[in-house]
Design goal:
Elements (H helix, E strand, L loop, with lengths): L7 H5 L5 E8 L6 E8 L13 E11 L10 E2 L4 E7 L14 E5 L5 E5 L6 E3 L2 E9 L6 H10 L16 E10 H4 L7 E10 L6 E5 L4 H5 L14 H6 L11 H16 L18 H5 L3 E4 L11 H8 L15 H11 L43
Antiparallel strand pairs: 1-2, 2-10, 3-4, 3-5, 3-11, 5-6, 6-7, 8-9, 9-10, 11-12, 11-13
Length: about 375
């Protein structure tokens, strides 16, 4: 489920469990970038952020090599971090609920204060922030996706069931003026990742997130990776720096991706991707560079996920903003990419949306006051 429940640590502490990351140009205000980080799957009314964790957006300027499909995105070393922390709960308030305050520290060190669940959020110089309970914007037929991998053939149906219908999450939303916050020389193309880390002088990374479904689908155990038959790679992967994989396990990630991508390619009974003689899949290195890539100079588009990466693979200039919007059907985009490389009909899980997100701050739909009980759905097929 996107990044919901992506490892044993996430299962143990839902308040630090990153579920989704979104990055897109403001639909109504030119030059502004919207960043959304969701945590706490199946959050109930009264859910609060952890006061022992920092919730961090990491943004780096990037460039796209033109006309060279063999090159990767060029991500710089300069970084703009936006870090949100939350107080110990206080209260109760007039409604009998605990209250919580948040602080978002900007790249220049300025702090923006806010009250959790206050729709007005907090404002600083060129920045607006919100944190609180909202409807989970992610949609997917999880059971049919798991069945697809278990049966080793496409199991999606024309009218699927959204496994997250009516569920809520905690969200952190930041809208910022790029030139004012990052500087006029920062450009317009950015690599964006999110992470939760422990608070303190020696922070420990708890979860990291770039693209949706890297851990729960692309790195899942499907019994096809001969090199890794025991270890759940997701917790190891969560400890990695989003912009620099360490040397210890990168070969394991490559092995899993190479094996899984061939597996997915064959789900429709034919192969559309050509692997190298050593078994390397054309998507492996691009997917290991695991972050969203967004161009704020391009207009907002709701169906633009992986556009910049697809353009790079095809040796053309990207036409839309890339990144990921709240209403983007990323499961259809992902499955179409890995199953038929876009050379066949769109592969759909039969779920095309949920309650639409707004085009106004804070963008996510209001929370469901009576969310359903969590449904236990496996996120990985049996190996």
């Amino acid at each position: 489920m996107s990044d919901h429940l992506s490892g044993t640590r996430a299962l143990a502490d839902p308040a630090i469990d990153l579920t989704d990351l979104y990055a897109f140009p403001s639909p109504s205000r030119s030059g502004r970038l919207v960043l959304v980080m969701n945590v706490f799957p199946n959050a109930r009314p009264g859910a609060l952020f952890s006061d022992a964790a920092s919730y961090r957006f990491r943004v780096r300027p990037a460039s796209v090599p033109m006309g060279d499909s063999s090159s990767l995105l060029d991500v710089g070393t300069d970084e703009f971090a936006l870090t949100c922390t939350f107080s110990i709960p206080i209260g109760p308030n007039d409604n009998g609920e605990l209250a919580q305050r948040g602080t978002c520290v900007l790249p220049n060190g300025e702090s923006v204060s806010l009250l959790v669940n206050d729709e007005r959020g907090g404002e600083g110089h060129g920045v607006r922030c919100y944190a609180g309970l909202q409807l989970d914007p992610f949609f997917m037929d999880v059971a049919k996706e798991v069945e697809t991998r278990a049966r080793r053939q496409l199991a999606f149906v024309p009218k699927g069931t959204n496994s997250l219908e009516g569920a809520d999450v905690l969200t952190v939303v930041v809208e910022l003026d790029v030139a004012r916050v990052f500087g006029a020389a920062s450009g317009s193309v950015f690599a964006v990742a999110a992470e939760t880390v422990t608070v303190g002088p020696y922070p420990v990374r708890l979860e990291r997130l770039g693209r949706p479904e890297v851990k729960n689908i692309l790195l899942s155990d499907n019994g096809v990776d001969a090199a890794n038959k025991v270890v759940d790679l997701r917790d190891l992967y969560n400890e990695e720096d989003p912009f620099r994989l360490g040397p210890s396990y990168v070969a394991a990630y490559r092995s899993r991706l190479n094996a899984n991508l061939v597996f997915f390619d064959g789900l429709d009974g034919k192969l559309d991707w050509t692997t190298q003689p050593d078994g390397t899949h054309p998507l492996t290195e691009l997917l290991l560079a695991d972050f969203l890539v967004v161009d704020v100079a391009k207009p907002y588009a709701e169906d633009s996920y992986f556009e910049i990466e697809r353009a790079l693979l095809e040796g053309r200039e990207h036409a839309t903003c890339g990144g990921r919007s709240l209403n983007d059907d990323v499961i259809d985009t992902l499955y179409t990419l890995i199953v038929n490389a876009g050379h066949g009909p769109r592969v759909s899980d039969g779920v095309d949306g949920t309650v639409p997100a707004s085009r106004e701050f804070p963008y996510l739909a209001p929370p469901n006051p009576e969310p359903p009980e969590p449904v236990s759905v496996p996120t990985a097929a049996a190996g």
